[in-house]
Amino acid sequence: MKSRLTEFIKTTWFRYMAILFLGIFSGEIIFRSCAHMPVFSYPTFRVFISTLFLSGLFGYLLSFCNKIVARVLIGLLIFLTNFYAYLQLGFNNFLGVYMSFGTSSQLGAVVDYIKDFLHSIKLVYYTTFIPFILILPYLILFEKKIYNNDRNNIDKEGKKYKFYIKSLLMLGSVLIFISVYYLTLTLKFMQNDLQLTKNTDLFVNPSVPSTAIQQFGTTVFALGDIKVTLFPMDEQLTYNHKKRNNKSSNSDSDLTRKIDDTAWESVIANEKNNTYNTLNNYFISQEITNKNEYTGMFKGKNVIFIMMESVSDIMINPDLFPNFYKMYSEGWHWENNFSPRNACATGNNEMSGMLSLYTINNNCTANNYKYNTYFESIFNIYKNDGYRTSSMHDYTEAYYYRSTIHKNMGSEAYYGVNQLKIPYQTEYVNWASDEDFMNKALEILTNTDDTKPFMTWLTTVSGHQPYTASSILGDKYLKDFSDLGYSTEMKRYLSKIKVTDDGLGVLLKGLEEKGILDDTVIVMYGDHYPYGMNRNTIKQVLTYDLNDYEIERVPFVIYNSKMEPKTFTSYTSYINIVPTLANLFDLNYDPRLYMGHDLLDPNYESMVVFADGSWKNEKAYYNAQNGVVKNYTDTPYTNEEIKAINEKVSYKMKMSSLAIRNNYFKYLDNQLSKYKVVEVSSTTGDNVAVATN
User: Quick one: fold of 294-609?
Assistant: First the structure.
């Protein structure tokens, strides 16, 4: 037996397997160290098993190849896995998320970021290439020498290990490794009891990259990510229909929101598709929030939504940004507002702000599902209330297909930078001026004979990176910040968002001159923090701890010149914009169709949910990547309470993804139109829904 083992160790197959294993696994260990993931852990053991299996499989296949070709392919595989680990570290450091092949629609745009990406790279990330650098000389020199010796004894190995013996060994190895790996996914002691998604589900569909990489390593994640990108899949979800008895509560209070579900119940009764009925049962069973003391506060007023490019809490400064601060201090603002980052932050966060849905974590949802329609979108609920709707952005469609996306959400007119006819540069460094943008937006909104109130969505661009390079807007106010002691990078950023503040000044002045400022509500939030900027640079202005997603704090403001200033401390994000504003304007809407909640509802549960399923509030922070809870009070959540919150969060995110993937709201709109309340039963007095087709 000993001689047989010795002979096996001398085989080409074993050598190739050993080289691949050393190159790939050591790269995984370096990655985990750089990403501050525990090295001595069950997930690392799982990575060990998967790397050993993959190395054995590829080593077996390459043992039949020409030796020169095999050496080249071994070197290439090690380089690619090391390079992928490097990219993931850099991408997460640069944008705050791990990359996915599902974001391929942005590949053309990513070329623009290369210089800033490289500038942000930490030197330690280059250590991921150490395995390749050390193994390359061996492949070139020593493996070549072994190859020459093998040529002189070409039949020696062949006599000892025939093809069928190698095949049997490989088959046995495959069965053993698959069995062991499966056990690492299922054995209870190897699982995190508080993990949001089970490892078995995450392995089949690595829909949450941060958790999947933590549990499986970069190589297995990459393979799984490629699989679901080429062959998209929905998770198999079920939801029992637990319809709330709204009829009994209708007489409780004048504030009770009354919604007739007769037609929807008929849709469910007649639907045969499991996916649609799962979604039907989920949404119809959600809470119908009541009206409250704020309902209709702004009814009939104009409304302007502004998503501000790269605006973080840095903009909360009365001296540097007086126009923004005027609305921030004289209106309502939420101190604990966040814009959770994801792979396509601007487009996806804009989409969530318009729909109150969680976008799909590992793809550019706004682009990938641009043909979806949403009857419950922010545009449609205002349009149904008699508003003229529009949307505008002072850049082209190089990144996001807004002319299609917004139209399918109900925007009656979309104006890009070309339609606005304002100056802009096609190069990445120089962006259009938000001051020009607001001037044009005012013209479009006010130079009309249409007497309907207006609702518009404006997405600014001036604050966009880069901040390391000289640019027109980045240098415009550079001297104004010369005495603050900040780096040039920070001063360029401040200069850019100063232009955004100038634009807000143009808007306020223009609305006042037109005599409609008092009759207009302005809603503002930052789309994301200035990613691409080093944390140490951000700390020059923001002095609080930026860990635990604190870096993602951005302003959220609701302003009207006649309102009383208020400060809210509840935790929130863009997910709550639609239901909150729909209630303030007393629009006809169904609160159950949104993943967000009316922030002014007395029963609002203070919480912000991040793109990977992490969440935080006043009591605790839950990190979905590693399943660890950090408590902020002396009365921490119990494990059962954490699990209950996680289950609720998980269902919201999964149902949102399922709805988007299946264009559910188009389906629901079409189905509800088939069933109308056409008569009242003479025996029960209830409405009866009858199919009209």
Answer: Alkaline Phosphatase, subunit A (3.40.720)
